[in-house]
Write a structure and sequence with these properties.
Helix content is 32%, strand content 21%. It has 5 helices and 8 strands, in the order βαββαββαββαβα. The chain has one domain: Alpha-Beta Plaits (2-Layer Sandwich). The strands form 4 sheets. The chain has a two-stranded antiparallel ribbon. A two-stranded antiparallel ribbon has the order 2-3. The chain is an alpha+beta fold and 162 residues long.
Length: 162
């Protein structure tokens, strides 16, 4: 069964454990700036949003890479960067509409989530389950349930207004 990294922003508390775990696992240091996931926080609007490569089905980053350095890992399905091909042009960073590709401030190379090769550490350590590694069918089921709940809420409000 296929799995995805499910992001549920409303569960995020902004603890940034995901950033710490990611940088430690992938770069060997605790440095959120070197993480492949970033928690965007707006204190005025009151939200935290974990931003990570969404592993798009038809990724723009892959299409625009002039040297075909982004490829699909057949084992995990993750869109990964082959650093032996990457020339560091940052076209993938600029083109991602979701901000999923970043530049490592220390090495200067592009960073993009590779799902920890099929076992995402960020999801393992996310206490609030804002990040979960789940079967695609479960993710679909949750989204459908949320849509039904939202629809039911709207219908109830409309009935009260009558």
């Amino acid at each position: 069964m296929s799995k995805i990294l499910l992001v549920t922003p409303e569960r995020c508390t902004g603890c940034r454990t995901c950033e710490i775990v990611c940088s430690l696992k992938n770069e060997g240091v605790v440095n959120p700036a070197r993480s492949r996931i970033t928690v965007i926080k707006d204190v005025f609007e009151g939200y935290e949003f974990p931003l990570v490569c969404m592993q798009c089905e038809d990724p723009i980053c892959m299409a625009v890479c002039p040297v075909n350095a982004i490829y699909v890992n057949e084992e995990t399905g993750a869109k990964e960067i082959d650093y032996s091909k990457c020339m560091g042009c940052r076209t993938c960073v600029i083109s991602c509409p979701l901000g999923g590709a970043l530049v490592d401030p220390v090495t200067g190379r592009t960073l993009k989530c590779h799902l920890c090769h099929g076992d995402p550490a960020c999801a393992k350590y996310c206490k609030t389950k804002a990040l979960e590694w789940v079967d695609v069918s479960l993710a679909n089921q949750r989204k459908r349930r949320a849509s039904v709940e939202k629809y039911t809420e709207v219908v109830k409000k409309a009935e009260r207004l009558r």
